[in-house]
Task: structure prediction
Amino acid sequence: MRPLILITNDDGVAAKGLRTLDEIAMEFGDVVVMAPAGNASGLSHSITTTRPLRVREVKLAEGLSVYSCDGTPVDCVKLAVEYFCPRTPDLVLSGINHGSNSSINILYSGTMGAVTEATALGLNAIGFSLLSHNPDADFEPGKPFIRHLIGEVLEKGLPADVSLNVNIPRPKEGPIRGIRICHEAKARWVDSFEKRIDPVGQPYWWLTGKFICDNPPQRSDEWALANGYVSVVPIHPDFTHYQALEELQRLSL
Amino acid sequence: MRPLILITNDDGVAAKGLRTLDEIAMEFGDVVVMAPAGNASGLSHSITTTRPLRVREVKLAEGLSVYSCDGTPVDCVKLAVEYFCPRTPDLVLSGINHGSNSSINILYSGTMGAVTEATALGLNAIGFSLLSHNPDADFEPGKPFIRHLIGEVLEKGLPADVSLNVNIPRPKEGPIRGIRICHEAKARWVDSFEKRIDPVGQPYWWLTGKFICDNPPQRSDEWALANGYVSVVPIHPDFTHYQALEELQRLSL
Result:
C-alpha cells in the first residue's frame, strides 16, 4: 500500500505553498489535504473550543482529497486524522509556509502548531517554510530539498516524539548550499505594537515588531539560513527545561 | 520601589481566578492587570495579526490598574509591557486558570502562552492553574503555595529563559501535601471530535476528547497532582530536541 500523507498549513487552502507541497507529496503516496478555509497565521497551537467546526470538500486536482475547515491548523490535524483519513497517516506535512518559522517564530506559527500536534498524536511530521511572505513566492529552488527530506523520513522514520522544522532560505539570495541540522537560535521581537488613533480620536494598536537575533551561533537555524542553507531543527512537544530541574533546588520549595 | 507585577489570564478579565491572583499579588507589589475581554481558552501562543487591538480600562479594586483587551493572552503581555506598565515588570503572572494546564495541556493553553511570551521577553514569569473548571472554584487551599512561590521568585529570580508552570490539585481531594518540582508527563488526547448533524442534515464537529496518561512517572506533574502535590514544572520557549540533533545523523541529509 502507498504511504498516506496528510497535509495542512496556516495560510489557507488556496495558498500556493500548500499546492506546491501536495504536488510533491503525490509523488510519494496517497494524499489527504485538510487546511483552514482562510488565513490562520499566528494561531500557534490554538484549538477551537467555543463553536463546532464545519468542513467543505474542495476540488483542487485529480486523485487528491482536499478539505477546507473553518478551524485552526491544529483542529485540521485532529479532525482529519480522526474522520477524513482512510487510514492512519504515515506522515503529516505542514506548509509550505509563506514566511519564516525559524527560531522563536515557531512559538506563534500555526504551520508548526499543526506539526507539533501530529507529533503529540504519535505521527511523523515535518513543517516547511520559505523565507518569503510573497503570495506568489518561487518555491522551485527548495523543491529538491523538500523531496529529499520527505523521502528520508518516509524510509527511515524519525526519533520518537521528534518532528522537523524546516526553513528554506530566500531564492533570490543565491543557490541553496545544502541542509544543516540546527538548534533554534535565541531571538526576540521588539517594538511589538504601533499605536494609532482612529477617526473619532480613540486609540488602537497594530501588531508589528522587529526581529532581533544577534550573532546566531554556527549550529543555529538563523546562522544556517543567513548562510544559504536549509535549516532542519528537530523539535518536540515538551516544554520542560530539564537542566533547570536541578537548578530550581535553590528555591525553597 | 515596590516590585511591579503584571497579571493576565485566558479566562477573561472577569474570572474569579484572576481576581484571586491579583489580590495575592497586591501583597507583594504594584499590580497591572491586562487580560482578554472574554474567554480566550485554548488560544495557546497565538497573536492577533489581521486586525488591531482595542483596550478598555476597568475598575476592579482600589489601587489596581486593570485593562481589558480584545486580543489573546500573548497580545496582552506584549501590549501591556510596551504601553501600559509604568516600568518593566519584575514578574509576570498568568491565571489562576480554571482547569488543568499540566502535561501536554500546556501546548493549547492561553494562560501558559502568556507565560512563555513573558519568558521570551526576558521577564520572570509563573503560570498558575487549578484542576477545576468550576467558574466559582475554591482557590483558598492553593493560596499559601501561590504566595510562597511568588515570594521565592521575587526574592531569588529564576534561571535564565525559564518560567514555571504551576498546577494545583483539586481542593476536594484532601489537603495539599506540598510542592513537587516535576517534568511534564507524556500524555495524549484521544477521540478528539464528536460528530453531530444540524437541523438541515449537515454535519458539524465539536471538540471534545479524553485525556490519556498511563502510569505517569514519579517525577512527573501528573504523578504529583494525582498524589495531592502542587506541581511546578520549569519550562522554556525552545522547542529544540537537543538529543535528537545527534540521532538525526542517520538520515542522509
Summary: DSSP finds six helices and 13 strands in chain B. Residues 4-189+217-250 of chain B form a domain with the Stationary-phase Survival Protein Sure Homolog; Chain: A, fold (CATH 3.40.1210.10). Residues 104 and 187 of chain B are 6 Å apart (CA to CA).
